[in-house]
Design brief:
Layout lengths: L9 H4 L5 E5 L2 E4 L4 E4 L14 H12 L11 H11 L5 E5 L2 H12 L5 E2 L11 E4 L11 E4 L10 E5 L15 H15 L8 H11 L3 E4 L2 E4 L6 H10 L2 E2 L8 E2 L6 H13 L8 H6 L4
Parallel strand pairs: 3-11, 5-6, 6-7
Antiparallel strand pairs: 1-2, 2-3, 4-8, 7-8, 9-10, 10-12
Helix pairs in contact: 2-5, 3-5, 7-8
Length: about 290
């Protein structure tokens, strides 16, 4: 993964028909088709329909005019929520977006900021840890960028450090209070997500149909496809009624809500395209340069 915060590949996303509505982890297309979202905007949609609380908080803050980047009263609650989720990173600076946070990381490090993906096939080590919910912290980096569980439009960017003194020379940005309110509420929802059913029992139910096509690590998924066949895997997933990550090096995610029929349809489409145990699985994908 390069220094870009998102790495989104529009070429593959362009294979998805226009989306007219999104509810939780399901996409409703203008042509009448429905898709199970396994990408969830790089993990930002991990809460599924439970992100309605964050959206409601954002709407309430917007009604109060808190959509401008002025100082406010919600910084402390947001910081507490972030540090509760990732307690090993006590240093924190806020930025308007991930690009600005990575630029600050490069200044601190004195070298380009390269994200270290915690859910990978083993071939990449970056200088800034990308923190994902339910994934281990990448070992080594002293700076981190958390992927917050809320829509990008409501998500402030954070640069975290293991040693707060590393960020002493960085002032950060003043971000809209609307974003801090929504992101803090999303982190609260994330803290209670396992209690509400998003945990090992659900993830293991996913495996019953899909273990042949994805390697699962917690809720995170790596496609069982070689790099050179990933476009085929993406196309087959669309045929099977699912959206997977639009980049080979980016993980997918067990969605918070799915039914058996959706998984049967996806498994059948992937099998017809030649994927599954005989395709070589993730082990061979790693050998292709991942």
């Amino acid at each position: 993964m390069d220094g870009k915060a998102d790495g989104m590949t529009g070429d593959l996303l362009g294979l998805l028909p226009p989306i007219r509505r999104i509810r939780g982890n399901r996409l409703y297309a203008a042509d009448g088709r429905r898709f199970l979202d396994l990408w969830l905007d790089g993990g930002r949609g991990i809460l599924g329909e439970r992100d309605r609380h964050a959206r409601m908080y954002a709407a309430n803050a917007a009604d109060k005019g808190l959509s401008r980047p002025y100082p406010g009263q919600h910084d402390a609650r947001f910081r507490k929520a972030v540090l509760s989720c990732w307690p090993g990173w006590p240093g924190l600076r806020l930025y308007a977006n991930e690009e600005r946070a990575l630029a600050a990381a490069a200044r601190v490090l004195g070298s380009p900021a390269v994200l270290s993906e915690p859910v990978s096939r083993g071939g990449e080590r970056g200088s800034v840890a990308l923190l994902r919910p339910f994934a281990p912290d990448p070992a080594g980096p002293v700076l981190a960028l958390p992927r917050l569980p809320c829509p990008a439009a409501f998500a402030p960017a954070c640069l975290l450090s293991r040693d707060p003194s590393l960020l002493a020379g960085e002032g950060g940005d003043t971000v809209p209070q609307m974003a801090l309110v929504a992101a803090a509420r999303a982190l609260d929802s994330l803290a209670g997500s396992e209690r509400e059913g998003y945990g090992p029992a659900l993830w293991e139910r996913w495996d019953r149909r899909m273990a042949a096509f994805f390697e699962r690590r917690g809720p995170w998924l790596l496609a069982s496809a070689a790099r050179e066949r990933y476009t085929e895997f993406f196309r087959a997933s669309i045929e099977g009624g699912a959206l997977v990550a639009p980049a080979f090096d980016e993980p997918c995610l067990v969605p918070p809500d799915f039914d058996d029929g959706e998984l049967v349809k996806l498994a059948a489409a992937l099998a017809r395209a030649g994927f599954g145990p005989r395709d070589g699985s993730v082990a061979n994908a790693a050998g292709s340069g991942a």
